[in-house]
Design goal:
Largest sheet: 4 strands, mixed
Strand order of the largest sheet: 1-4-3-2
Distance between the termini: 20 Å
CATH class of the largest domain: Alpha Beta
CATH architecture of the largest domain: Roll
Number of helices: 4
Number of domains: 2
Strand content: 35-45%
Shape: globular
Number of strands: 8
Structural class: alpha/beta
Order of helices and strands: EHEEEHEHEEEH
Radius of gyration: 15 Å
Helix content: 10-25%
Length: about 130
């Protein structure tokens, strides 16, 4: 089994796609006006409008209601990402900080309030874990 994507349900697909295109530097591929995907080397971030929920199970997902998932992106230089997003992101949850497990992390919220973590491995063990 392969983990291939995570999907965010939103009431404003264009706004969220624009945010992620700028934040991660990947252009979205639009399937419909209610569904777009941002493909990275490791997985796909899918962004879907509320009308798509009814295709699976009506009422099973609500936009801007996430309080338990953090979307994470491995980046070459988290401090550079922080500099690039300063002025674009209205408020960071946590400035770049080196975590006890060896990653330097930047935590922010997307326009729907979803937590997003950009991180760079900085200790030898963390670098080895994420060696590409």
């Amino acid at each position: 089994m392969d983990f291939v994507s995570i999907r965010i349900i939103t009431s404003d697909v264009a706004r969220l796609v624009e945010f992620y295109e700028r934040a991660i530097g990947v252009r979205a591929v639009w399937a419909t006006e209610d569904f777009a995907e941002l493909n990275t080397a490791g997985a796909t971030l899918a962004i879907a409008g509320t009308p798509t929920v009814a295709l699976f199970a009506p009422g099973s997902a609500r936009p801007a209601a996430n309080h338990s998932v953090i979307i994470e992106f491995l980046v070459d230089d988290v401090d550079r990402v922080h500099q690039n997003l300063t002025g674009f992101v209205t408020g960071f949850v946590a400035e770049p900080t080196t975590m006890p497990w060896g990653n330097r992390s930047l935590l922010l919220r997307d326009p729907d309030g979803n937590l997003v973590n950009f991180f760079t491995p900085v200790t030898a063990a963390a670098v080895e874990k994420f060696a590409r």
